[in-house]
Amino acid sequence: MILVRVTFQAQFGKAGEIVELLKQDPPGDVRGRILTDLSGSFDTVVLETVVDSIDEYFRQLREMFANQEMNEAMRQAYGLIASGTREFYTIEAEM
């Protein structure tokens, strides 16, 4: 299993708007969680999902961006985001 962590650095004061856009129902069977900062860089939003493989993640990503509603939501988010990163982790154990 792979944990995918996408971290968005929102424009100042815009993290809540990004959260609302991310909370829209994605197409397919995408499950995850949305986190916001309690410490560290202000206005940080993290989207975590778990997938079987990196190939599966990119298949889901293509499916999401092919969906017109999700595509429009992400277009709205572009003006709210200052920067971002994507990280992949192998899940070794759940405790």
Q: Would you mind describing this structure in some detail?
A:
With 95 residues, the protein is α+β, with helices and mostly antiparallel strands. It has a domain at 26-82. It has helices spanning 15-22, 54-66, 68-78, and strands at 2-10, 32-36, 44-51, 81-90. The longest helix has 13 residues, at 54-66.
Blueprint (SSEs and pairs):
Blueprint: E1 2-10, H1 15-22, E2 32-36, E3 44-51, H2 54-66, H3 68-78, E4 81-90
Antiparallel strand pairs: 1-3, 1-4, 2-3
Taking pLDDT < 50 over at least 5 consecutive residues as the criterion, the unreliable ranges are: none
Our measurement of the CA-to-CA distance between the termini, rounded to an integer number of angstroms, reads: 14 Å
What do the pLDDT scores average to? 90
Query: Beta fraction of the residues?
Result: 25-35%
Would you list the SSEs in sequence order as H and E? EHEEHHE
- Alpha carbon gyration radius: 13 Å
Number of discrete helical segments: 3
What overall form do the CA principal axes indicate?
globular
**Sheet with the most strands?**
4 strands, antiparallel
Indicate the structural class: alpha+beta
Name the helicity range.
25-40%
Strands, count: 4
Give the spatial strand order of the biggest sheet.
2-3-1-4
